[in-house]
Records
---
Amino acid sequence: MNILVTNDDGIFAPGIYSLACALSKIGKVYVVAPNRQRSATGHAITMHEPIRAEKVKFFDKDFDAWAVSGTPADCVKIGIQGLIKEKIDMVFSGINKGPNLGTDVLYSGTVSAAIEGAILGYPSVAISLASFRNLYYDGAAEFSIQIAKKLIENELPLDTLLNVNVPNCRKEEIQGVHISTLGARKYNNTFIERKDPWGETYFWLGGELVDEKKEEGTDTYSIENNYIAITPIHFDLTRFDLIEKVKGWDIQV
Amino acid sequence: MNILVTNDDGIFAPGIYSLACALSKIGKVYVVAPNRQRSATGHAITMHEPIRAEKVKFFDKDFDAWAVSGTPADCVKIGIQGLIKEKIDMVFSGINKGPNLGTDVLYSGTVSAAIEGAILGYPSVAISLASFRNLYYDGAAEFSIQIAKKLIENELPLDTLLNVNVPNCRKEEIQGVHISTLGARKYNNTFIERKDPWGETYFWLGGELVDEKKEEGTDTYSIENNYIAITPIHFDLTRFDLIEKVKGWDIQV
């Protein structure tokens, strides 16, 4: 089995190392990842400038690995359609530093890379560790092996991928596995206004998560209660249940 | 009524000028748009560097207008949460140069800006002109007035926005309005490999649309047949119908 591994924290982030090492126990790993931090790039792709892809040494491993100047979605495209000569069987993206829950998935480069894998027709998984401090990647990495095995045994529709969030704790502290929906996740954004050394104004996007009730069944609830949250997601944004309603608006040219 | 207008082709693109002028007939227009071409940025946001927002003269108009160094989604965030002091009633993004049909919406900065508007709780519309050549924006711009009026008369759920694609032809050639689903839209990507003047390899994302059957009821079908396509879309990617199935996989920690 050939597995493409990517992420959005960059090719030299510890999360992708843990993930690639774990998956190398069950298949041949190819690493194609951004050459720098590319968090919050969403599903951006690079159309208007060239992309560089440099073959690199991946830590202490002999995996084929490329550091790419583009986005996570670019990495999956160029990995499968340009760099790797073998047939890929599966795409894994992560392990992300920090959760990708609820509406986070729209902004997440990690999830977008897995969505790109699904668009191209490959079983795809995004995996994130739900903390920003004292990260313990190895538990999530071990769990990725199980996910890969389940994806071989059980087929998902081609337009569907798995978004996995793992609590940042020891295996014995994890309460179990939930198959969850995406929860609500709102940020109270503030733009902090500052002056640069030349007196010109600039802004930083700041703000914090609004603490709200986490409904049972959602990924936010699962993570809060130390469960692994697995959410099947797809990329058809059509709001089917409103088609008839909007037809009733009788919009004319 | 206060209307925020943005796009992904940049603040000095002709499409946003047509849109802003049309909407100024029914409300006060605020323009907050990228200071350069930002197509295919998806739902990227700028978290890891500062954002500049420069007040600019918008063509021959007196609209309040800012050219922003960030992405289209940034423009909506910083417009509503930082720059504009009045209460915004509606967000319009466009008029995009080129269609945003089917899976295009995932990559589109234009659509992502409207999604951001919906995330923040505002009635939001993305509008695109379905051609890259000999663009005739004024018809689509006039049509945006009708969409805005319908959105006032008829409420959409807060998590839903409208993705509108307009055929690039004279009003009398348009066959009507379809409320459509997102169609399939596949690209046969190829990465063109070249050498730079110093002998180093670089790649360009190339390739073309795969011509496939356009199913009746989809936006791709509507546009092909010279209908305006309006698709209600949302941003909950959960594949609800597969939750129970994946529960049956019995994944253990």
Note: Chain B has a mean pLDDT of 94.
---
Amino acid sequence: MRMAIQDCYPDELSHCYGCGRNNPGGHQIKTYWTDDGKDPGSETVAHFLPRDEHKAIPGFVYGGLIASLVDCHGTGTAAAAAYRAAGREPGSLPPLRFVTGSLKVDYLAPTPQGVTLELRGRAVEIKEKKVVVDITVTADGKLCARGQVIAVRMPESMAPK
Amino acid sequence: MRMAIQDCYPDELSHCYGCGRNNPGGHQIKTYWTDDGKDPGSETVAHFLPRDEHKAIPGFVYGGLIASLVDCHGTGTAAAAAYRAAGREPGSLPPLRFVTGSLKVDYLAPTPQGVTLELRGRAVEIKEKKVVVDITVTADGKLCARGQVIAVRMPESMAPK
């Protein structure tokens, strides 16, 4: 995927603090396929360099930030996988926009600051209204966290009026 | 507890983006006992008003922020409960400082913006090196999320030099 899935979201659904291009103060996380994204085993990737203030203990990244990265890379991967499963172009209307139903993160090792983190995602279950995404977070090749996001199609009640 | 547990942490362990008083750009989450904190069933409470930018979809709070609040209220509750279990004054040395081993959040309903969120925590398992904390997040009395934090004693390898 040349474009990040988040850059294919409609403008009115692009204000997320984690990944919205229309949220200038947010993290603006970008999720890409690592290949052409056509294979059920295709992985997604995102990169993020935490700011100095994103610390837990000096020298180590704040776990809440890691959870935020997992969250948005999870819903992004869910959207990308749902478009693929439907045989549709990413961003084509009506939008396939997912929100987080459940988030789990296991912190396996302290995550060093000053390093660009790599998130890898894989959709392990894809249904029309629910996609499960497994995620790893590495720093300099070292596995620091594993996450799982249960992403659900955005309910109508959340749609901007 | 008159003081927040986070305000009892030593200065060098108070830089957390979520709850450190020495992180001016952070969330500065504060965890208090709801009573004198001496009962095994005592609950903790924290309040937080998300900023406008902390949105997912316009009108609704970003799930990654909710995960961050759960994270720090969880480790804070763990520290408070560990001091209580040890019969020690909060903040007495050596510090009982916990970090997150595992974090799980179930998002039960979209969380409205513009409302001060209330987090309630309860330590459901207390061991020397591990405390499990259950947390609820409500907005205007409505239950929006449930979380569980498995907090572990901060390893020596993370201690500031």
Note: The mean pLDDT of chain B is 95.
---
Amino acid sequence: MDRTNDSSLSPRIRDLIARQPDGHAMLREFYSDEEVYQVDCQRIWRMGWIFAGHSCEIPKAGDYFTLEVDSDSIILTRDGNGQTRALYNVCRHRGSLICDHSEGHVKKLVCPYHRWTYDLDGRLLHAPGMQEELEKSRLSLRPVHVREAEGLIFVSLASEPPDFEAAHDVLATLAKPQGLAKAKVAKMVDYLVRANWKLVWENNRECYHCNANHPQYIKANFDHYNADDTTPRVREQISAAVSRSEAKWAASGLAVSHKQTGMTTFPDAERNIWYSANRTALVDGFSSESMDGAQVAPLMGDYPDSDVGTLRMRTLPNFWNHSSCDHAVSTRLLPQGPHLTAVRVWWLVEQGAVEGRDYDLAKLMPFWQLTSEQDWEICERQQRGVNSHAYVPGPYSIYKEYNVDAFVRWYLTQLQAEKP
Amino acid sequence: MDRTNDSSLSPRIRDLIARQPDGHAMLREFYSDEEVYQVDCQRIWRMGWIFAGHSCEIPKAGDYFTLEVDSDSIILTRDGNGQTRALYNVCRHRGSLICDHSEGHVKKLVCPYHRWTYDLDGRLLHAPGMQEELEKSRLSLRPVHVREAEGLIFVSLASEPPDFEAAHDVLATLAKPQGLAKAKVAKMVDYLVRANWKLVWENNRECYHCNANHPQYIKANFDHYNADDTTPRVREQISAAVSRSEAKWAASGLAVSHKQTGMTTFPDAERNIWYSANRTALVDGFSSESMDGAQVAPLMGDYPDSDVGTLRMRTLPNFWNHSSCDHAVSTRLLPQGPHLTAVRVWWLVEQGAVEGRDYDLAKLMPFWQLTSEQDWEICERQQRGVNSHAYVPGPYSIYKEYNVDAFVRWYLTQLQAEKP
Amino acid sequence: MDRTNDSSLSPRIRDLIARQPDGHAMLREFYSDEEVYQVDCQRIWRMGWIFAGHSCEIPKAGDYFTLEVDSDSIILTRDGNGQTRALYNVCRHRGSLICDHSEGHVKKLVCPYHRWTYDLDGRLLHAPGMQEELEKSRLSLRPVHVREAEGLIFVSLASEPPDFEAAHDVLATLAKPQGLAKAKVAKMVDYLVRANWKLVWENNRECYHCNANHPQYIKANFDHYNADDTTPRVREQISAAVSRSEAKWAASGLAVSHKQTGMTTFPDAERNIWYSANRTALVDGFSSESMDGAQVAPLMGDYPDSDVGTLRMRTLPNFWNHSSCDHAVSTRLLPQGPHLTAVRVWWLVEQGAVEGRDYDLAKLMPFWQLTSEQDWEICERQQRGVNSHAYVPGPYSIYKEYNVDAFVRWYLTQLQAEKP
């Protein structure tokens, strides 16, 4: 592929892109260089759709949370008409942050510096002390594009964001029965992972490392078996699980859409498909991604019983979610520098569930808390190795790292995409 | 104005200066960029006069304190003739710091590395172990220009500093009755504010933010009332305060020099007036800038009684002082990077005053400690917002931010001034 | 000397080299600049031989320790044939660190990410899950050149390292009787010194600072006396010590090779001699470099009794060692940035010695622990001064800083050496 198309990239970046070997891990600079990081911010993080959080985090007008994308702070709030809004958290007067806390509730958005007051939709209502000729209508908080899909909120910092409809259709169709829009956050944990965001993403896109690192995860799932090591017995197990589910779910529309071992293929770099969702069978005996497979919270959404496998969603560059019958776990990445990624993990349950009565965090959390923290440790170790001058990108396994390879292709395509 | 004069500025900086909109907050880069910070160090901090500290901090020969301007450490000391000296804190041999502590007392300035010994005026006295032909007279500690005005010490790192006489006249005339040269430091507090020094300065140059942020300050002062919101009642109050003072002070020469509400205008960018001082009336019932307005220490200087309003002084780029009849509060800024400012606040009282007997820190400090810390929080929040790509400089209030606007003009003029 | 030869250095670096005054401390940028630091990494740290550690730290096959040179991590291990190996600690698959701990024991080198498994000599043995056509033989861990001299391990990151034989001969000949290859590590202390590695090195190359800073050290040694201040009495003392030793050691081959006061001259910049060793008499009454001069551990190596003076070795850019009859102290520098140096100090004793019975850390350590920590403080203070714009390189003492001057010449020569 001709990788040196975009003349607005610096010669150094174009040279890096040209030197990236096919089917191999990325060159050192892609994971550690300041200029590459700035290009990532411009061409990935400020161009596409970013997962922000959940509608259920801001149920009422004036509820808000903030989102920090590199050095850009964004307010996610609900306006008086019940509409979700995304606004830059930067006063139009002298640039102060407006919301200083990471979440809260306000009636209006009032800048704490000089009390410029904005409506929840961003319109400047009052600017006391300013000259009469101030054109308030030109001083609204700068809006950020925002879209929702069944309780998942996405934003785009681009002036003209890419299409969201196809993503919405895929995500909403599969997510609907999960009831995320009627969920509540049972727990949220924030991590600072000392690794480039792409290392964190790549780690999530293969289960080649699962046997060695995720003793809990592999008990529940078929992802770590691939074409090269799926035994007849495993093949039988997954077939049985799939057939059983299909028979049972025929009426309720919960089709298993990923019927093999291994991870579903994603992304589609050639067609720029940056979103996907699928329903997958769990190992026999697992009703939920919990330590022992038992249900750990009340059924969510429209599920008739616990036998629904797992719903999985992921969107580039920063979101994945595994949802069982009884709880959903969302993970969000945000870049904070070439070697630093802020990660948030949410555990969601049905909105009426009461802690202590209906669920217990000590049972709800460990499966994904352990799995996540195992991954952060892997990523930090990889970053330290990749920083070395001795690092040479190695070949990807065609059996197990097809999704990492697809990500690299997607990423390089994004860097070179024509900008509007 | 043609802002692209100075050919020794990089094209990037000249472009920034050219793009700065009139009457608006400064562009993002002025507050966050490393190259701008380096230009600030060269053209502001190493060119003009910087407030260093107070004569009363080094009363005896050999007393010293150090001043850290970016990465330059400077010793302020008093020599054997009682003269205040400023010397770079860098040994002429291999560059070691000579004074490792931020204050102290020495007989000679002895480098701890190899015992090169300098007199308090900087002359190299001994360099044991060096060859006989060493030209000691060429190896004095490098001097820094130093001037005093009624107990306030200023230094200039420039080889040919700008004129100081006019500044001296203004400051000394107004400061004389305050008796700062016969004061003592009751307390000193150091802060590291995570904001560009210009944000900290600008914050001090308007009281537009006072109503929302400084409940203590606004009780004592008229600064937060401006042409747009001074009610007839407030106008009457200040007139009464001014007239009363004028009548009373006629004999003692304590003229109120700022007779309106709002802050006195400063700086004068066009004539490069970087210093100013004025005496201002306090709100009725306030004898001192204290929490309840009551006097909190013995009268200072030549004051006949407590009814003297406040003396206020400020010099660019790094000093302001509010002095009441009984105490004086100095604030000094020092740059430590594009996003970091070291701030020191001093509380001074009459030199014979004894803590516990004549004053109590719990009464002396809160008014300005609270006000200062409120301001640092504002500045840090503004820095975080200004870092955003979404930040767009907004318009200044012509009623309330005239001094911030004047500062921006002064600053841009300094950047482009012809260098000697 | 024409210092502007090497066209692959940037004009800025070549200009710095050209401006460096002879016989003076180095220019500010050499100690504080990021680009200079990168050049140092390329032309010093990734070109010559670096001291890594001691053979006795990895006595058995599979024992390992890691070495961090700037951002390159290296594994030092012993293979199944008893041979010392140095391998980059970077998996050939996706670049993860393989050994996450700074020391340990393994059977194979197994990457924790995907279990790629390497033999102790670096050969890739297993890469489970990879395609069959994987060329394992091309995916060995990248080797680092490694050489040993009587228990001291050196590595070179260069593709074609400079000659080691001459260094080996000098070090091995003098070190042999010390028995470092049959030693054990009694204690190891790690420091992070906030100073450029060259400041730390230079500090070690003169004893001009000893009188003022090292009260313990100067009791035991003659280094701090030089041509300018060696009194007849001191001259007599060292002559007596040398003669006594020579008479006594005639049979055992422990020749005193440095017979004057002052430090032995090193390096030889003109002939690029980056290694040296010598045996030196101690002050009468000192059997060991301990606080009171008394022996603090059993005799090491082949020493017949305690009267052996001290063996001293040093190799550029990062190693020095002082060995007494009963213990040896090694110091290793590793660069971590323009203003940061990681320093490790080891105390070694005879391998059969038992703590509590044969030696006591409270007696073994203080002499060099105090001396070392005094030096780190000096270096950090010098770095702070050298950072100043007011710093001007001063003249070296021809009596006392001849080795620092020689180091500067060696360093500048290395920067400009033709690269293979």
Note: The radius of gyration of chain A is 22 Å.
